[in-house]
Amino acid sequence: MEISAKTPVYCVIGHPVGHSLSPLMQNRAFAAAGCDGVYAAFDTADAKGAAAGIRALGIRGASVTIPHKVGIMDFLDEIDENARQIGAVNTFVNSGGKLRGCNTDGQGAVQALAEHIAVSGKKALIIGAGGAARAIVHALKAGGADPYIANRTPEKARLLAEDLGAQAVSMDAISGRSFDILVNTTPVGMHPDTDAVPVPESALVPEMHVMDIIYNPLRTKLLTKAEAAGCHVIDGVGMFVYQGALQFSLWTGLDAPVAQMRQVVYDALKF
Question: Judging by beta carbons within 10 Å of its beta carbon (0-12, 13-18, 19+), is residue 166 exposed, middle or buried?
């Protein structure tokens, strides 16, 4: 496909974003769907300036990543009900200069989990208390799961649990507990610090489903240790692709080419 003066522009904003595979995935989606569009990455620590620039330049939509998922909300014109309940945004749509914030993280995570386990009635331990954790806890509750939140700063876990009607548990108390699902939403174990693990090995019990939302590296140290402990492991590509597919549909109104999006990500990760 050729880029012209009329080609709609989309982007990801965050800091850092140099590791992101979103441009590769979304540009493949535009090509596979036969949809005119181009997607770029903008590394910025200035959420307010980024929102103003996107509005002024007519960029049609944006993905939002660390550290802007909560702070960007102050600079958008409206927030949809799902994102408002979550308290975080991972995407927004620009409609004639009006920026509407949405969140596809939680639904993307549950879709990825659903390929391996039905979440309804399951006890799920979420590690972390940031924007991704908020979205995933919200979606798990909507899907009938019983979520628990653990964070290295216990007060953040407690506040998030109160906000979303979940339960907080201390990191010291998760070892040996009976959880059906464990989801790491923190950057612990992400490239380049790939030897780090967000939970003690004693928290990994046989038959638990362990998902790490990190996708670079594809097989994190957490997943390696979880597999050795007899857990079912789920890499971060599923959530990444599903949340991106939902973003694509929000921006274009088209069904996303999920299979092609997934394949280009795995190809990039040498899977």
Answer: buried
Cα 210 to Cα 46: distance, rounded to the nearest angstrom = 34
The string of DSSP letters for 34-82 reads T---EEEEEE-S-HHHHHHHHHHHT--EEEE-TT-TTGGGGGSSEE-HH
Cα-flanking dihedrals φ and ψ of residue 33, to 5°? Answer: -85, -5
Bond prior to 16 in cis (omega within 30° of 0): yes
Overall pTM surpassing 0.85 (yes/no): yes
The two three-digit tokens of residue 185, written as one number: 């939403």
64 shares a domain with 27: yes
Is the N-terminal amide bond of 217 cis, ω within 30° of 0?
Answer: yes
Phi, psi (deg, nearest 5) at residue 256: -80, 145
Q: How does strand 61-64 pair with strand 78-79? A: unpaired
Q: What is the pLDDT of residues 223-255, one digit of tens each?
A: 999 999 999 999 999 999 999 999 999 999 999
Query: Choosing from 6, 48, 69, 123, which is the catalytic residue?
Result: 69
Tokens of 245: 């597919």
Residues 86 and 144 reside in one and the same domain: no
| 31 and 43 part of one domain | yes
- Reply yes or no on whether 69 is catalytic: yes
The total number of structural domains in the chain stands at 2
